[in-house]
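Q: Could you fold this chain for me?
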Amino acid sequence: MNKITAKDTKDLSKGSIGKTILYFSLPIFLSQLFQQLYNTADTWLVGKFIDTNALAAVSSSGTLIFTLVSFFTGASAGAGVVISKYFGADDKDNMTKAIYTNLAFSLVSGILLSIFGVIFTPFLLRLIDTPENIMPQAVEYFRYYFFGIVAMTMYNACRSIMNALGDSKNPLYYLIFSSLLNVALDCLFMGPFGLGVGSAAVATVISQAASVVLCLIHLTRKGRLYTISLKYIRFYKKSFIEIFKYGIPAGIQNSVIGIANVVVQSKINSYGEFAVAAYGIHAKIEGFAFLPVNSFTMAISTFVGQNLGAKEYDRAKKGGSFGILSGVILTEAIGITTFLLAKYLVAFFDDTPEVIELGVRQAQTVALFYGLLAFSHCVAAVCRGAGKAVIPMSVMLAVWCVFRIIYIEAVSIIFPGEIGYVYWAYPITWGISSIIYLFYYLFSDWVHGLDCKSKKQIIAEETQAAAEEELQASDDLN
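A: Sure. Below is the predicted structure, expressed as structure tokens.
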């Protein structure tokens, strides 16, 4: 087993817990910020250069895109847990095999997802009741986007690898470049070239492909102990089983959230293009509110994984609690700001009165409950980092998918034509999941050790080790 001391890695099992998590999460936060900015640029530029129907077309496919790619995003996050565990344990051999397996899985899944998305685009869009007047533009955007979806799956894999190794800075640099390129291409394609809504998807694909190239150049550069060679990218059985164990539950968790959101999107679509556009605009606004959650969940997962690998159980527990509290406070502050400035935020994207009215209504319904959203995601990240990915998967499946769908269908029957009750699906399910997570986090025995071992097992091992040390000391004296 080779000791890992690579230049761009960071050992999260040492140093101040608060500073370590904050310093590690800051580049992730900035990466997410730039990613959200270039996603927002797509929406804003489509609305300004083309029209409201084009904006609605992009918005209508957003939830569906998230659902289809979220499984593989979650799987990459699970792979990151495996890699961070081996990094913390200084096991370079198994860590490298996990890296190669993650890249192979992301490449194959991206190709398959691309084929599926391109072929079944019209069927999928009709499945969610996309309005007919925006269907041609939605099909155009969706197909172009999925034609190059392998760039997204590969970037997620590269980012999860570097984050797992404690490197959150280089993904930031590459994403900044990608974001600026995306905005420039958007302006060029939809401005002087006068191209349609599909050009926004093309710009996104090109910029994501550029970031993948930069990531792979970094990972294959000589002079680092974790340098990889592309010719060794393949599936390694042990690594694949481990990634399957941790990644599949995380992928399912993301997917069931996406499925529930598709049901919500379908109901929103039935209210017409103004409601669809407003829903898409709010999704962009909420994306910014979600930035602290994204950054802290990635940081928490990596922190817990590395510390468990290093057998720093108490440090892992304290780090998890710090990350949860920080994520909730920051996200709730953003939620309050969103509530107060909702009208101006929505109007920034579209000045159509009907769109502004619906967008403000949704924002002011959910914004004050963002803290609950943050709490659920942060506790789920602690579970994933501790190798307990089945727990958040089960909670999200039961509450954010099954219950949310039942609620949506029920209010649609009881209160037909009243969109406000549909908006309440989010804060209600966030609240229920937060209550479940709170009880689990406070009273579950495993969370106090953040390991597969029970607290009693850990105490017994520590007691036995202390007794052996005393016996050894006694022998030395004799």
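A (continued): Residues 1-6, 446-452 have pLDDT under 50 and may be disordered.
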